[in-house]
Design a protein that fits this description.
Elements lengths: L50 H12 L9 H16 L21 H4 L27 H29 L8 E4 L21 H4 L3 E4 L18 H9 L13 H6 L9 E5 L2 E5 L3 E6 L5 E5 L15 H15 L27 H15 L1
Antiparallel strand pairs: 1-2, 3-4, 4-5, 5-6
Length: 371
């Protein structure tokens, strides 16, 4: 559903595309009737954050599912596999945006059962989201971890189905395959659930980036460079013998990995709503775009980033903060904390025509950010 919102439209430039509808709160089907903002009326004992705001759509989108093939991973990779079969006779570029394992984590039961004894579990069926819960009864966090793990395993299986098809069609030896993630998850790492702007810790920031080259002799090669998403198009184009157009900021990571060219990036920077982040070979630094709050970690001594030393090293904070602003080439706008709930970003709320729940959501969000 994000594909239809401002700043998205990621299908632009492709000769064809196919949307697999219904993920998360996609306004794909008519929302379920009844007060889904009341925890008594949803399939979990408590709701948190955005759950009540979107669950009516989420549940409506999946209520017709009857078999594993109805889940998003088999539908998405099934469509991709069919496309490869139909287009295998000529060179192609295929991008697959598999939304899962995004929330809500609801893998088929057999995948969930790989990670816990479901018959022995009698705790809450929690649907976690940004904002909570952050306190659990015994066994509940294990249930959430099992749900996430099952979702990942489910997706992995269907990635394998696609890769097997590429091999079956005889394309493996002359095809580049890149597996990339957009972000990780805090699952009570550093005391929070999911991705939080002021918690850009390794669980969130260290991503999957795997490239399978036609040159099989390079299998297992690792690269410890600072790599970002804007490197992907430059890397893939040059690997395919295509000269990237002018104006792209990315670097060819493949040449770094193979040692063809030296690594030249000494640090990385990132922005996530109002918070900014930078990392080099010694420090990780975070601050908000009003420069009112900051965190500093020495990763040579504290690789898991558990001990904030910003108060002890103000001069280091100042230097790293200046680096971020220099990278931005000017002042950084004071963005709204979270877009959710804003009229310009959200669909009309059919289920909450008075706006009562949306206002409650904004109030909860603001109170949480103050804390």
């Amino acid at each position: 559903h994000h594909m239809f919102k401002p700043s998205m439209n990621f299908h632009r430039g492709y000769t064809s595309w196919q949307f697999i509808r219904g993920q998360e709160a996609d306004h794909y089907k008519k929302p379920l009737e009844g007060d889904v903002t009341n925890p008594k009326n949803i399939p979990c004992e408590e709701m948190y954050g955005m759950v009540g705001h979107s669950l009516s759509y989420c549940l409506a989108n999946v209520q017709d599912w009857r078999s594993e093939q109805d889940w998003f991973a088999p539908r998405t990779f099934g469509a991709a596999t069919k496309w490869v079969e139909e287009n295998a006779s000529s060179p192609f570029f295929l991008a697959i945006d598999e939304f899962d394992p995004h929330e809500p984590w609801n893998p088929p039961r057999e995948y969930l059962a790989e990670y816990m004894d479901l018959d022995a579990y009698d705790g809450r069926r929690i649907i976690p989201t940004v904002g909570g819960p952050n306190v659990f009864n015994e066994g509940e966090l294990d249930y959430i971890l099992a749900s996430y793990s099952g979702e990942v395993t489910h997706c992995d299986h269907y990635v394998g189905v696609l890769l097997d098809k590429i091999k079956e069609l005889g394309l493996w030896e002359n095809t580049i395959v890149a597996l990339v993630s957009d972000h990780g998850h805090n699952i009570m790492d550093h005391g929070v659930m999911h991705k939080i702007p002021d918690h850009m810790y390794p669980e969130l920031m260290d991503l999957v980036y795997i490239i399978k080259s036609p040159n099989s002799s390079l299998g297992g090669t690792e690269c410890d460079a600072y790599v970002a998403h804007h490197d992907i198009p430059v890397t893939l184009m040059e690997m395919a013998g295509i000269t990237p157009p002018e104006g792209l900021d990315g670097r060819n990571v493949w040449k770094w990995a193979t040692g063809e060219t030296p690594q030249t990036r000494k640090y990385a920077t990132c922005i996530f709503y109002p918070w900014l982040w930078t990392k080099d070979n010694k420090y990780v630094y975070m601050t908000d775009n009003e420069k009112k709050n900051e965190k500093l970690y020495d990763t040579t001594k504290d690789p898991e980033e558990n001990h904030d030393i910003s108060k002890e090293h103000p001069e280091v904070c100042r230097r790293l903060r200046d680096r971020i602003w220099k990278e931005a080439k000017g002042n950084i706008p004071i963005y709204d904390v979270i877009r959710h709930g804003h009229e310009w970003y959200e669909y009309p709320d059919i289920h909450d025509p008075t706006g009562t729940f949306s206002e409650s959501l904004k109030k909860t969000r603001d109170e949480r950010m103050k804390k």
